[in-house]
């Protein structure tokens, strides 16, 4: 008889794929008690989701198969139930509920939310239709959706992403489960919405004494919310412990690596991120030995033995699957954190935006009558100086990508001017934009969708060299392409491969090489790392920083992740609904944020350190980013601003200087 | 929703008006004199002039169009010199036959096709799946007229189980009607069943791997409830378009079947009026076909909005 609410013992799940046997979960043991919040952290492919999906038998079988272990829930081994048996169906949704990553696609679009919530209630609690409806309304109130009586007949499309995730929670809580699993539940949401959802989850499980399992790749989230943490790598749990033990007495080299690889809001910026070298192992080629040994800076002979290292127990809660204790680890590679290469920022502006506006007309009816403008960019003015990195942050709909596309003249401006190297390019005809196009390059977010799948890597990189006639002879062309490959850390021998033969991080290197091939002076990076795994993100950030120093590049770095932006940028621009709300030097933004939105954005981001987290005073804001079509009058932030007054409702505050190049647009400062 | 339907109705009226212009100009696109073209050049001069005048061909074009359109709206579809009847009578006598065959075969194709599609998708990779899929491919590849001839040969001529021609409405003589309609309906629905089955299968397979099906499964729902409560409604949305298309086809395509089985339906009328240059009848048939197509499309669009809240709420 197990004393834990759920105890997973030695779970092994495999997928029989064409390329071989993929050991997705390899001997994972974990447990959770009533009312506890635990976190399972790992990168993509680490097996964190598969572990929990296996317990509920939700993995596709075939090709998946649970080959070993047991999962004891309330005294019964639920792994022994059949995939479609009524016993496992009672556990699913009834005893253990799940919330998934994509709120946009996880709800059935053709059923009302009332039907979808009510279904669970009727199934597990045996309620009548009328009673289920009442319960659904009550659940909507519980997750913070007011007037449930009318909203219950709405379809998922009528809700925003954050609201849909609330509905998912309502649905998961419908049958009073014992355990709630949040599988990357907030990854697709905006930073401030993410915080609201996580706080909601924490409140609900506290109120109902439900256990919460947070599955995430985000170490900072578990630092803020989880009591105990399991770190997974390539199907193994490599370290487990309480939150404090994991972050303060880190024992496994992989966990250490992760912590060094992520930029922190409160860290010293001169610290260079220490990337974990190499790539996660191919799960189809997994051997018996420590899966991290190939990338581990401390690996020794012992690690190449074909056995998984046993857990060293440091305390009843803390253990790590490594041959060595932290004190015994000796680096075999030069781990000396290299200093950041110095760079020079000139006082001469490379790009000046003056009152740039971009409106998209909205048409309606058969006659396509113009009824309104969506003001995606409204009077955006700032400058970028030669050699600097300007960070641009904001949540969805703030206009950051529109701005990038407008600068590139992929959109025509509605008003204002864009001055590049002293020349107004905002109204230049396409044929006279050629040399600007060579000078200004772009790195996209999604390294999977932005590279032509049929073009070889070499020609992707070399295309611009040809287009701009930058190589006079074929030899020079080859030399230049090879140079670019080496500059971004790729082997030129890979030139003939096509994009799908590269990993995500390698593809992003390819995009960078391709952007650099026209020898630009200014590069716009639009969320260049957000599609990548944590350990790969650090590699790309370091690469971008090095390339800037070596080639004297200027970056406009767009991201939603303030800690990353802060790490790489010299100055930061914060945007909200098409307006610039604050411009600040990087160091002041965290220490002295002026605009209430910036304050909220900063405090929504958890710091990967439970001790620091507990001591933080946080500004929290309500609601979600409104749609641009229903843009508020006056200060665009006023409906969510805790300090809003009558004045804010009517007049939009201009950007004002507060010294040291720090500007903000708020009436209340 | 009401606004959406009104909007679509107005669009339908516009489309029909455009088609009426095309149908009207048909008579003027024929080289030479339309009356001679229709009745042959041997007719006496007086007769020609009389017909020319009755058809209003001596008036300005615009006036002719509105006169013609006005008559149609009043229910006067003109006189068919080939059938020696008013066109309204020709159509009224034959429309029920064609509609009956069209609707019966459409109902069979839709129900059976979707059913096979769901079965093959749910049991993907099983023997049932492969057998039905192979049959569906054969069904799509097989020409209707060939199937009709083969059926007539086997069941009509060799086994003598079923009559090879003619048509009786069920309320006239049920037994005879059923026996007479079996072969035509089979011919008219085989292609439809095959297409629906294949489309439903791929649409279901697409839906089954969606996130919301995973959500439904994680709720602990029964497999049958997941399929019929969550998957089917989503999978049928793309099938609706197809239904609109095939309804029109079974109406327009009935010409072949009616000719082979010697059924006096509208399809046959169309073929005959075309062969005999009976332009008044042809104009009406064309308008009728266009109207049916528009109504089918309208119904599909309304069904779409009903099935998919994303369209309804826009």
Main features:
heterodimer, A: 669 residues, alpha/beta, Rossmann fold, 2 domains, 8-stranded mixed β-sheet, B: 314 residues, mainly alpha, MetI-like fold, two-stranded antiparallel sheet, 14 helices, 2 strands, 79% helix, globular
CATH architecture descriptor name of the domain at 92-276 in chain B: Orthogonal Bundle
Low-confidence stretches of chain B: none
CATH superfamily of the largest domain in chain A: P-loop containing nucleotide triphosphate hydrolases
> Largest interface here, residues on each chain?
A-B, 31 and 26 residues
Q: What structural class do helix, strand and pairing data of chain A support?
A: alpha/beta
What distance lies between the first and last C-alpha atoms of chain A, to the nearest angstrom?
A: 61 Å
CATH superfamily of the domain at 92-276 in chain B: MetI-like
What would the average pLDDT of chain B be, to the nearest integer?
86
Strand content of chain A: 15-25%
Please indicate the percent range of residues of chain B in DSSP E strands (runs of 2 or more). under 5%
Number of helices of chain B: 14
**What spatial order of strands do you see in the largest sheet of chain A?**
6-7-8-3-9-10-12-11
Largest sheet of chain B: 2 strands, antiparallel
Number of strands of chain A: 24
CATH topology-level name of the largest domain in chain A:
Rossmann fold
Rg of chain B, please? 24 Å
Task: Characterize the structure shown.
The complex is a heterodimer of chains A (669) and B (314). With 669 residues, chain A is an alpha/beta fold. Chain A has 2 domains: 6-95 and 175-328, Rossmann fold (3-Layer(aba) Sandwich), CATH 3.40.50; 389-395 and 430-664, P-loop containing nucleotide triphosphate hydrolases (Rossmann fold), CATH 3.40.50.300. Chain A is 30% helix and 23% strand. Chain A has 21 helices and 24 strands. Chain A has an 8-stranded mixed sheet with strand order 6-7-8-3-9-10-12-11, with helices on both faces. Chain A has an 8-stranded mixed sheet with strand order 18-19-20-15-21-22-24-23, sandwiched between helices. In chain A, helix 13 packs across helix 14 (474-487) and helix 15 (504-516) runs parallel beside helix 16 (534-551). Chain B has a domain at 92-276: Orthogonal Bundle (MetI-like fold), CATH 1.10.3720. Chain B starts with a helix and ends with a helix. In chain B, helix 5 runs antiparallel to helix 10. Chain B is built from 14 helices and 2 strands; from the N terminus they run H-H-H-H-E-E-H-H-H-H-H-H-H-H-H-H. With 314 residues, chain B is an all-alpha fold. Chain B has helices at 2-29, 34-39, 45-54, 61-74, 87-122, 127-141, 144-158, 174-208, 211-218, 223-252, 254-260, 266-275, 279-307, 309-312; strands at 79-80, 85-86. The model of chain B has no long low-confidence stretch (mean pLDDT 86). In chain B, strand 1 (79-80) and strand 2 form a beta hairpin. Chain B is globular, with a radius of gyration of 24 Å.
């Amino acid at each position: 008889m197990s004393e834990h609410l759920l105890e997973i013992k030695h779970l092994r799940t495999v997928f029989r794929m064409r390329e071989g046997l993929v050991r997705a979960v390899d001997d994972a043991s974990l447990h959770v008690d009533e009312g506890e919040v635990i976190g399972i952290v790992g990168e993509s492919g680490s097996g964190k989701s598969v572990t929990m999906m296996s317990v509920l038998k939700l993995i596709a079988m075939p090709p998946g198969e649970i080959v070993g272990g047991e999962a004891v829930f309330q005294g019964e081994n639920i792994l022994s139930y059949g995939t479609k048996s009524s016993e496992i169906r009672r556990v699913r949704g009834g005893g253990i509920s799940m919330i998934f990553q994509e709120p946009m696609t996880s709800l059935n679009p053709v059923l009302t939310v009332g039907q979808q919530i009510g279904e669970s209630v009727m199934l597990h609690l045996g309620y009548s239709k009328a009673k289920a409806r009442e319960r659904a309304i009550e659940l909507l109130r519980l997750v913070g959706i007011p007037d449930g009586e009318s909203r219950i007949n709405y379809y998922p499309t009528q809700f925003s992403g954050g609201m849909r995730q609330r509905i998912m929670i309502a649905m998961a809580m419908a049958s009073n489960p014992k355990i709630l699993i949040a599988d990357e539940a907030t990854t697709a949401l905006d930073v401030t919405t993410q915080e609201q959802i996580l706080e909601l989850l924490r409140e609900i499980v506290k109120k109902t004494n439900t256990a919460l399992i947070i599955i995430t790749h985000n170490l900072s989230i578990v630092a803020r919310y989880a009591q105990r943490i399991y770190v997974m790598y390539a199907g193994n749990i490599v370290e487990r412990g309480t939150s404090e033990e994991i972050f303060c007495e880190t024992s496994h080299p992989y966990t250490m690596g992760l912590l060094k690889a992520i930029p922190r809001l409160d860290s010293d910026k001169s610290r260079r991120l220490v990337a974990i070298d190499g790539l996660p192992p191919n799960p189809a080629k997994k051997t018996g030995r420590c899966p991290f040994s190939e990338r581990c800076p401390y690996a020794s002979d012992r690690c190449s033995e074909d056995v998984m290292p046993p857990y060293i127990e440091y305390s009843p809660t803390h253990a790590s699957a490594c041959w060595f204790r932290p004190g015994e680890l000796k680096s075999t590679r030069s781990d000396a954190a290299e200093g950041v290469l110095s760079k020079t920022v000139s006082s001469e502006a490379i790009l000046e935006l003056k009152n740039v506006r971009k409106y998209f007309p909205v048409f309606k009816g058969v006659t396509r009558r113009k009824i309104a403008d969506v003001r995606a960019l409204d009077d955006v003015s700032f400058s970028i100086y030669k050699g600097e990195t300007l960070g641009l942050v904001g949540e969805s709909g703030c206009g950051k990508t529109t701005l990038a596309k407008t600068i590139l003249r992929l959109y025509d401006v509605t008003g204002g001017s864009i001055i590049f190297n002293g020349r107004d390019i905002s109204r230049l005809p396409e044929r006279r934009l050629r040399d600007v196009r060579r000078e200004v390059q772009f790195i996209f977010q999604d390294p999977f969708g932005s590279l032509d799948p049929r073009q070889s890597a070499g020609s992707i990189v070399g295309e611009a060299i040809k287009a701009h006639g930058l190589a006079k002879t074929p030899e020079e062309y080859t030399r230049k392409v090879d140079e670019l490959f080496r500059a971004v850390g790729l082997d030129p021998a890979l030139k003939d491969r096509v994009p799908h033969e590269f990993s995500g991080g390698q593809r992003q290197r390819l995009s960078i090489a391709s952007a650099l091939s026209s020898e630009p002076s200014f590069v716009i990076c639009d969320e260049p790392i957000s599609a990548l795994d944590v350990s790969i993100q650090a590699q790309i950030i370091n690469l971008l920083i090095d390339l800037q120093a070596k080639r004297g590049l200027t970056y406009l770095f767009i991201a939603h992740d303030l800690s990353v932006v802060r790490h790489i940028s010299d100055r930061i621009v914060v945007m909200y609904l098409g307006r610039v709300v604050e411009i600040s030097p990087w160091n002041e933004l965290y220490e002295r944020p002026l605009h209430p939105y910036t304050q909220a954005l900063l405090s929504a981001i958890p710091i990967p350190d439970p001790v620091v987290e507990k001591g933080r005073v946080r500004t929290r804001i309500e609601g979600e980013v409104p749609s641009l079509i229903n843009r508020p009058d006056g200060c665009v932030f006023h409906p969510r601003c805790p300090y809003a007054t009558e004045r804010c409702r009517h007049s939009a505050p201009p950007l004002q200087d507060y010294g040291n190049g720090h500007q903000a647009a708020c009436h209340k400062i | 929703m009401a606004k959406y339907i009104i909007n679509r109705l107005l669009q339908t009226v516009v489309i029909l008006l455009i088609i009426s212009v095309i149908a009207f100009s048909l008579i003027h696109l024929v080289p030479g004199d339309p009356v001679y073209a229709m009745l042959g050049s041997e007719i006496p001069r007086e007769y020609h002039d009389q017909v020319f005048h009755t058809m209003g061909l001596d008036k300005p074009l615009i006036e002719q169009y509105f006169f013609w359109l006005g008559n149609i709206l009043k229910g006067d579809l003109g006189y068919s010199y080939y059938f020696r009847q008013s066109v309204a009578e020709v159509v009224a006598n034959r429309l029920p036959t064609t509609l009956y065959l069209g609707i019966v075969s459409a109902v069979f194709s839709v129900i059976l096709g979707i059913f096979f599609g769901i079965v093959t998708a749910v049991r993907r990779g099983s023997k049932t799946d492969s057998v039905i899929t192979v049959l569906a491919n054969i069904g799509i590849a097989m020409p209707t007229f060939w199937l009709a001839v083969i059926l007539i040969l086997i069941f009509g001529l060799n086994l003598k189980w079923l009559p090879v021609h003619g048509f009786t409405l069920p309320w006239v003589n049920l037994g005879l009607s059923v026996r007479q309609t079996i072969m035509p309906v089979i011919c008219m629905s085989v292609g439809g069943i095959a297409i629906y089955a294949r489309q439903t299968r791929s649409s279901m397979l697409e839906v089954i791997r969606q996130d919301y099906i995973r959500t439904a499964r994680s709720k602990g729902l029964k497999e049958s409830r997941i399929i019929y409560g969550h998957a089917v409604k989503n999978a049928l949305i793309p099938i609706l378009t197809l239904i609109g298309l095939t309804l029109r086809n079974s109406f327009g395509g009935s010409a072949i079947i009616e000719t082979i089985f010697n059924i006096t339906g509208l399809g046959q009328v169309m073929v005959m009026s075309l062969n005999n240059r009976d332009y008044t009848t042809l104009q009406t048939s064309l308008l009728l076909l266009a109207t049916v197509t528009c109504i089918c499309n309208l119904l599909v669009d309304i069904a779409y909005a009903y099935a998919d809240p994303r369209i309804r709420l826009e």
